Structure to design on (733 residues):
């Protein structure tokens, strides 16, 4: 593909660049990171009508080449040909939103000054026509000194112009001496704008109307709450059948394959290690896809910045930014997509804080653990006439996570060395009808990233944990459960003195080790430690609930509460830690997060245990 | 582009309030964008760049300028945030931007219809 034409898409945020990229390349695209930074690098390929191949790079959106964030710096460097691996582009396709020409021309002028071959892509022409904005493309081309083509990126038919223009080599080094423009950029823009645009009304009636609702003090917050509720409902309720299906499938796969392997150790590796490990990753896929479906639709429609606008003040006070809202909301399903979603936060400090507190949001993997412990220790009684005590405790655990996250981000705000102003400068784009093709391709991307980046790591670590829990094997005639003789068992016994002040016995300590793979594993692990064998997870959980709360032989109430609190904080999720490594590019940040979460977990469990054991013995 | 006067040096960040009232009492209508009420329209007269100790450029002010917040541009407040009227939603040209009060404070405006 060395003879392929190399082009790069540049444009402001919200110019429809990504839609254009998706319609040009379809699924022939690859998402990776630029070397050394966590900026998404999107490369795709497509073919022109003449059969010529094109390699297209989708650069991060920016308002200006005067970069203020790492991703903007990448765009600047690629435009200036400073990134060796990208080399020089044959042409820059400057994507411009026809309904927002005044703003978007700024970047076009900056790129023209670089003197590289350019083709200006006047996108969203359908929207411009709908709003009665008439643009004289020929005049625009004359004024800018570069060719201009009109497109409608959300329709395949809308990009034919662009394909033909590329085929004819209609991209040229700017001929600015002809344009007769003087003064600063904004003066030039004013001149061009007056010359080429005939418009009736600056305001978009649709955006105006919807903003009156969505940004209204009462209606706005209400609609945000309703939307959040629907998203939550969907993530938990709609995903359940798929998750059950996946679990059943992996259970069946384990049994079927296991039956064909006679060597017990090999069978254990395949069934308990590999298949269970893979199943543990894939089971979260439905939730992640549903969540990202909503996020992508809200993003494409232009609603997301509105939510950030509504909540910015509250979150800013806590040391975050309004843009942190969606990542944190996602973290209620799973911190992994939440941390992946922090890429939309432009200020690196705000992004880092958001990543650090994301694991404190109660993710769905904590639910089985909470369910077990609440069923075992909290009586199902009614308080104040209407509330169920068990439900109240669950609500309290969710709130504990949220409040702790706010406190942690508040403290981080004070610890930050760089006290310079945090900027919001958030564009609220016009509302648009989401482009389904873009949403579909976006979903495919997210799913792939999750399986590839996170899956691989969880998978490897699950096998490692299997090894720790299996070797050395129990001697002949052993009286204790096999795990007790393994490395994990030894570690558990070693850890026990450290955890005595928080009220954990050695059984809990052992179960915490395999629970590093994922929180919900602790239920099965406790089952193993207590040598319970049930037909399925539910039976194990029921048996366990009786066993651990039994008078005399079970745990004390204080231990139960202490373990609940432990799971609010403790980072029992290697997937999250691996994602933090991926997204921040630094093991130091992973270490800081692990240390502070374990520290907080220990501290809070300690207080819980000490106080509870004094009250209830 | 930097314009610091004695009061700003003396009173630091809050000096604009003082400057505002002083200038107002002299009949000079220098108002900050942050003081604009909902639905009011104004023209930008200047964007102030803060100077810090390390002589670093004021990135926020530079970005505001590249977004079109330049002298002569017309702005309108569309709405304000629910909590404490912050951030402020500004319409400039065809675009709506949310600015925090601290960002809007950098922008000096002249109310539409006020004498020059």
């Amino acid at each position: 593909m060395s003879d392929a034409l190399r082009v790069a898409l540049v444009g402001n945020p919200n110019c429809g660049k990504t839609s254009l990229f998706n319609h040009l390349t379809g699924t022939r695209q690859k998402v990776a990171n630029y070397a050394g930074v966590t900026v998404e690098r999107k490369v795709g390929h497509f073919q022109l009508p003449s059969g010529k191949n094109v390699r297209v790079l989708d650069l991060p959106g920016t308002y200006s080449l005067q970069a203020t964030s790492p991703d903007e710096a990448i765009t600047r460097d690629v435009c200036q040909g400073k990134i060796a691996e990208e080399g020089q582009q044959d042409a820059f396709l400057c994507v411009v939103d026809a309904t927002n020409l005044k703003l978007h021309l700024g970047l076009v002028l900056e790129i023209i000054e670089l003197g590289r071959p350019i083709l200006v892509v006047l996108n969203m022409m359908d929207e411009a026509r709908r709003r009665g904005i008439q643009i004289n493309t020929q005049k625009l081309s004359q004024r800018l000194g570069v060719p201009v083509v009109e497109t409608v990126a959300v329709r395949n038919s809308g990009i034919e112009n662009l394909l033909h223009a590329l085929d004819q080599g209609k991209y040229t080094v700017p001929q600015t001496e002809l344009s007769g423009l003087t003064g600063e950029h904004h003066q030039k823009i004013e001149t061009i704008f007056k010359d080429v645009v005939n418009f009736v009304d600056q305001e978009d009636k649709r955006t105006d109307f919807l903003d009156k609702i969505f940004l209204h003090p009462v209606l706005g917050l209400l609609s945000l709450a309703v939307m959040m509720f629907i998203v939550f409902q969907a993530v938990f309720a709609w995903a359940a059948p798929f998750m059950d299906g996946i679990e059943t499938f992996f259970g069946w796969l384990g049994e079927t394959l296991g039956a064909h392997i006679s060597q017990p150790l090999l069978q254990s590796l395949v069934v308990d290690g590999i298949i269970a490990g893979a199943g543990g990753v894939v089971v979260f896929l439905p939730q992640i896809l549903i969540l990202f479906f909503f996020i992508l639709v809200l993003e494409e429609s232009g609603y997301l910045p509105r939510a950030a606008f509504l909540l910015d003040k509250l979150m800013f006070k806590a040391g975050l930014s309004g843009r942190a809202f969606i990542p944190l909301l996602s973290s209620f399903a799973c911190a992994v997509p939440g941390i992946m979603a922090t890429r939309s936060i432009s200020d690196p400090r705000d992004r880092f804080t958001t990543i650090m507190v994301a694991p404190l949001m109660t993710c769905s993997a904590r639910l089985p653990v909470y369910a077990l412990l609440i069923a075992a220790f909290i009586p199902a009684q009614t308080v104040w006439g209407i509330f169920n005590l068990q439900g109240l405790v669950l609500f309290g655990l969710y709130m504990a996570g949220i409040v702790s996250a706010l406190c942690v981000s508040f403290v981080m705000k004070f610890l930050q060395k760089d006290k310079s102003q945090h900027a919001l400068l958030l564009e609220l784009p016009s509302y648009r009808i989401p482009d389904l093709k873009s949403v579909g391709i976006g979903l495919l991307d997210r799913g792939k990233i999750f399986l590839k980046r996170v899956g691989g790591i969880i998978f490897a670590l699950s096998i490692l944990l299997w090894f720790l829990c299996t070797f050395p094997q129990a001697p002949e005639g052993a009286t204790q459960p096999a795990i007790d003789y393994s490395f994990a068992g030894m570690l558990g016994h070693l850890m026990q003195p450290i955890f005595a002040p928080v009220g954990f016995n050695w059984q809990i300590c052992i179960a915490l080790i395999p629970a590093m793979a994922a929180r919900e594993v602790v239920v099965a692990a406790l089952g193993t430690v207590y040598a319970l064998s049930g037909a399925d997870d539910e039976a194990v959980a029921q048996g366990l609930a009786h066993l651990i709360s039994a008078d005399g032989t079970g745990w004390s109430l204080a231990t139960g509460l202490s373990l609940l609190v432990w799971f609010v904080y403790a980072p029992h999720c290697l997937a999250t830690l691996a994602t933090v490594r991926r997204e921040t590019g630094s093991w130091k940040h992973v270490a800081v997060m692990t240390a502070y979460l374990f520290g907080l977990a220990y501290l809070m469990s300690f207080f819980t245990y000490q106080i509870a054991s004094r009250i209830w013995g | 582009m930097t314009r610091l006067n004695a009061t700003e040096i003396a009173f630091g960040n809050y000096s604009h309030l003082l400057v505002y009232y002083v200038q107002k009492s002299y009949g000079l209508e220098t108002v900050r964008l942050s003081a604009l009420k909902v639905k009011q329209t104004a023209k930008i007269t200047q964007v102030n760049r803060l100077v810090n100790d390390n002589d670093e450029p004021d990135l926020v002010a530079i970005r505001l300028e590249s977004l079109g917040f330049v002298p002569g541009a017309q702005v309108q407040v569309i709405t304000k945030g629910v909590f404490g009227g912050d951030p402020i939603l500004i319409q400039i040209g065809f675009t709506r931007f949310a600015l925090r009060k601290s960002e809007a404070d950098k922008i000096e405006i002249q109310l539409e219809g006020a004498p020059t």
